Amino acid sequence: MKSNWIFIFFVAICTEVYAQSDSLQLSGIPLRTHFNSEDYQGGIESWDFVQSEKGLLYVANNKGLLEFDGNKWIKYAIPDATKIRTVTIDSKGVIYVGGQNQLGYFIDTGTGLEFQSLRKELKKAKIEISEIWKIFEYEDKIYFNTEDKLIAYSSSGLETIESPGFLINSYIVDGRLICHFYNMGLYEFKKGKYHSLPKTELLPKLAAIHANNKGYYFFTESGDVYEYDETGFELKTNILNPCTINDVKKLKNGDYAVGTQNNGLLILKSDFSLKLHLTNNKGITSRTVKSIYEDNFNNLWVALNNGIDYLKLNLPFRLINEELGVEGTGYDAYYFDGNIHLGTNNGLFIENNTGDFSEDKPFQFIPRSEGQVYTFSEIDNSLILNHHKGAFKIVGKKLKKFHDIGSWTFVETSNPNLILGGDYRGIKYFEKENDSWKNTTDIPGLTESSRILVFENDSVLWMSHGYRGVYRMAFDENMQLKNEIKHFDQRHGFPSNILITSYNIDGKMVFTSEHGMYNFNPTTQAFSSNAFFDEMLGKEHVSDLVSDGENSIYFIQNQKFGVIEEEKFGNFNTNTTVFEHINRYISDDLQHISVIDKNNILITSKEGFVLYNPSQRHSINKDFSTIIRSVKKSKSEDSTYVTTPLRAGNLAIDKNQSIKIEYAAPYYDGFEDLKYSFRLHPLDEKWSKWYSMNEKSYDHLPYGNYTFEVKAINIYGIESQVSSISFQVSTPWYATWMARTGYFMIFLMALVLIPIIQRRRHKVETSFITEQKEKELQVKDEEIDKLYNEKLQTELDLKNDQLTSITMQLIKNKEFIQTVQNKISYTIDKGGSSQELKRIINTIDKELADEDYWDKFAYHFDQVHGNYLEKLSNQNIKLSPREIKLAAFLRMNMSSKEIAKILNITTRGVELARYRLRKKLNLSREQNLVEYLIELDNKKK
Questions:
Q1: Backbone angles phi, psi at 297, to 5 degrees
Q2: What's the whole-number mean pLDDT along residues 321-336?
Q3: Where are the membrane-spanning stretches (predicted)?
Q4: What is the spatial distance between Cα 422 and Cα 407, in angstroms, rounded to a whole number?
Q5: Could you tell me which of 366, 364, 371 has the C-alpha nearest to residue 331?
Q6: The pLDDT value given to residue 787
């Protein structure tokens, strides 16, 4: 299977597939991040940038010096200064700043940067200034460009450089210091003297000077560019007229970045042709550009009239969105007749002049196209717009409607006068009539919405449905169905019925599914996994797939864009890293990739489109570090001590304090996606998961020595160098070496003294114990006699109580029997009748029913068993009188037969009563009822 794909790529490489020119340049604006004054807590205007060796960015701002580490802004206020105009870092890493009525430098105090003013040095040197516009290092000295002269600073202090006239500006160009004096032209300053550059007297006010192969380019503030050599200067071009230039930077790729006062930012090629023009709400957030800086990642920091923009020019991506006139979510893009056509949910937009980045919106909305655009179809050298309102033929910049049903797509057939169109209600035949297309009939048996139509060859068509699978149609030479339409779904090898889409990739049919990609086997009429794509992409769903016709296949998978490329013949690689920058922009509805040519790939976006240029060289800085920015420890009085790693020294905390370590990686190429991992030796053996947070706190650490390590991972999956800082959790006084020495001395003394003390104590204790034992024996004997007597008395009382109870019952029974005997005898003597005998029987029944005997029994029973029945009745469990009687008889260990006779019930009735009593007492099956009642009696005692 893989060899088939290798052959396809080989054929594609050898085939010319583009009619367009490689020089096609599409309009687009760079990805950017905007920082406003609230973000960095400074003034709205900034004037200058510089980057430290560690990568930290410093910005001269109206309200002080700003520092950015890729995660957080810090502002350092400067006393007695209204605006900071310029900032630079010398070869020793010292940060110098200058502005209105102020100049000086910053030193690291251990808790941050602290400003050291040089105004005292000005007084010593008797120098007066009102403004510092530029600072630079030259010949081991720091030079301050004031409003009219140069001031040099060295270890000997400040000194004024004698000037031939009124200084306008100064420039460092190729290691040369060139100064421009009013009405005098340019002078080079070297070895403490000014040397005039010939034929420069008539130069107007300059904004910048840059070197070229012959000499220099002079950029004037009015927009003119002059080329200069030793013979003089001549006008090269005018950048933009009218135009006021504030700053010009030559970029590392040879382009020029030009910041203007009211025309935004211009990117010029090395020949000064316009490459990019960004202005207010068209690429940048203001039309006024104060200053420009290219950082270590070849991206631009742009100081605006209100805030700072970060332009990611180094990335091969541009955005085409509402700032360029394209409104809404993108759905399809097509290059036709010299123009780019873009379809969104708001309609059709066409670029007037490809490559011309004019002040106006470069894309024009086409009337009558309002609403949802789905796709474009090129048919018979004309372009068709597929729209939710129907199908339109695009004629220039007008629309001609020829179909009223919501249209998805059109495909050409082997018959040049017949095309097929998929719409909301199926697939329809369209025949050519008077240079237009007319619906003649429908493909029978298919009424499903037909969004995707792909011809496998001239006679086989595949239609994909979003949640019902795919349909295969075979046609004869007249484009009529040969047989019934075949429907394929989960029953034929797919993992499910949803998300199935068909693609013809360089002549080979491929089918995406919910999980993985598949091939169709016409012999078995079934689908099987595609080994090549399984290896390249795995089993996750691919929502769009397109070949550029050469050696690349672009895809969108799980909301992420990527490309499969051939590194060398037969070896393929999947690349997704650089595209992490644009994944957040990609739309999640009907995602689509449009290959305009090999240098212009358009991806549908939530707002417009993302333009990708594979030919743009994108350099990735692989070497970067994570910086530990600060270490904060809480003091016992809940205050905070802050230090930096350079000044941390022997950092120590006690076990009741906490420590917070802040860190950052000044890697600005995708700084929004930086993540960090850390560990604390010796507690952590493994690194933590990757987190976006840039701080870590620890508290209640055991005492000992620790080393905190941290590293970052950038958007490309590259890890930074590891940074670390060590600290100590101080040993408490009772665990110090002095305390341990004391413990050892005490131990030695104990070894000597304890045996002596023990012997003495043993003698005393032996004598004392002997006396005590004798006394205890005497007391115990007396107690034993007393307890024995008490036991005998108790047993005697118990027997008496029992005897009394039995006696009373016997007496009562005897009295009852005598009474009955007397009545029977009397009745017999008197010749009593049967009625009289019945009366006697009733008397017996009353006696048996009389509860009085129970009260007496209960009284005497409680006397013997310590009010047992009374306490049993007072339990939380409510017992009936009969259940209380039963409990009493069971406590006396009577049998069921005995209890039955007493209660005048059957033995079965006694067992049932026992069962109910167990349930009320919540006894388990393993517990014995009688034992429980006996234990209850014992507890009550």
A1: -105, 15
A2: 95
A3: 733-757
A4: 6
A5: 371
A6: 74
Q: Could you give the strand order of the β-sheet that contains 418-423, starting from the edge strand earlier in sequence? A: 407-412, 418-423, 426-433, 436-442
* 638 pLDDT tier (thresholds 50, 70, 90): very low
Concatenate the DSSP letters of all residues of 320-351 into one string: ESGGGT--SBEEEEEEETTEEEEEETTEEEEE
Cis ω for the linkage preceding 702 (within 30 of 0):
no
Domains and CATH numbers, the chain: 29-236 (2.130.10.10), 239-315 (2.40.10), 627-731 (2.60.40.10), 743-850 (no CATH), 857-941 (1.10.10.10)
Three-state DSSP string of 880-919 = CHHHHHHHHHHHCCCCHHHHHHHHCCCHHHHHHHHHHHHH
What CA–CA distance (Å, rounded) separates 577 from 563?
10
Instruction: Say how far apart CA 816 and CA 440 lie, in whole Å.
Output: 122
Distance CA 853, CA 241 (A): 129
For the stretch 470-527, pLDDT in tens is: 999 999 999 999 989 999 999 999 999 999 999 999 899 999 999 999 999 999 999 9
Estimate to the nearest angstrom the gap between the alpha carbon of 775 and the chain centroid.
Answer: 81
Contacts 24+ apart (CB under 8 A), 882-885: 882/913, 883/913, 883/916, 883/917, 883/920, 885/854
Q: Rg of the Cα trace of the chain?
A: 50
Residue 580, token pair as written in the block: 């992490």
What's the CA gap between 538 and 136, in Å, rounded? 55
**Do the Cβ atoms of 898 and 889 come closer than 8 Å?**
yes
Residue pair 466/459 in contact by the 8 Å Cβ criterion: no
- Per-residue pLDDT reduced to its tens digit, 517-574: 999 999 999 999 999 999 999 999 999 999 988 889 999 999 999 999 988 777 899 9
What six digits make up the tokens of 866? 């310590």
In 3D space, the residue among 94, 144, 85 whose CA is nearest the CA of residue 114 turns out to be 94
Q: Give the mean model confidence (pLDDT) for residues 329-342.
A: 95
CA distance 186 to 178: 7
Q: Mean pLDDT: which of 509-523, 794-808, 913-927 is highest? A: 509-523
Identity of the residue numbered 672: E
What are 323's two structure tokens?
């700032």
Do 374 and 388 form a contact (C-beta atoms < 8 A)? Answer: yes
Tokens of 856: 């007496």
**What is the residue whose two structure tokens read 């002095």?**
738
pLDDT level of residue 197 (50, 70, 90 thresholds): very high
pLDDT(414) > 60 = yes
Regarding beta strands 206-211 and 216-220, do their DSSP bridges make them parallel or antiparallel, or are they unpaired?
Answer: antiparallel
Rounded distance between C-alpha atoms, residue 286 and residue 907, angstroms? 105
Give the pair of three-digit tokens for residue 686. Answer: 């493994």
For the record, the structure tokens of 29 come out as 């604006």
- Average pLDDT of the chain? 86
Q: Which amino acid is at 500?
A: I
Question: What span, in angstroms and rounded, lies between the C-alpha atoms of 288 and 285?
Answer: 9
Count of Cβ atoms closer than 10 Å to residue 148 Cβ = 15
> Two tokens at 708?
């905190």
Let me know: does 648 contact 725? Beta carbons within 8 Å. yes
Q: Would you give the end-to-end CA distance of the chain in angstroms?
A: 92
Give the integer Cα–Cα distance in Å for 842 and 739.
98
pLDDT of 610 reads 97
User: Which pLDDT tens digit goes with each residue over 298-308?
Assistant: 999 999 999 99
DSSP helix/strand/coil, 464: strand
Rounded Cα gap, residues 391 and 406, in angstroms: 7
- pLDDT value, residue 939: 63
Nearest one of 296, 240, 282, 235 to 28, comparing CA atoms: 282
Per the model's pLDDT, the better-predicted residue between 79 and 798 turns out to be 79
Q: For residues 706 and 682, is the Cβ–Cβ distance under 8 A?
A: yes
What number of other Cβ atoms are within 10 A of residue 457's Cβ?
A: 10
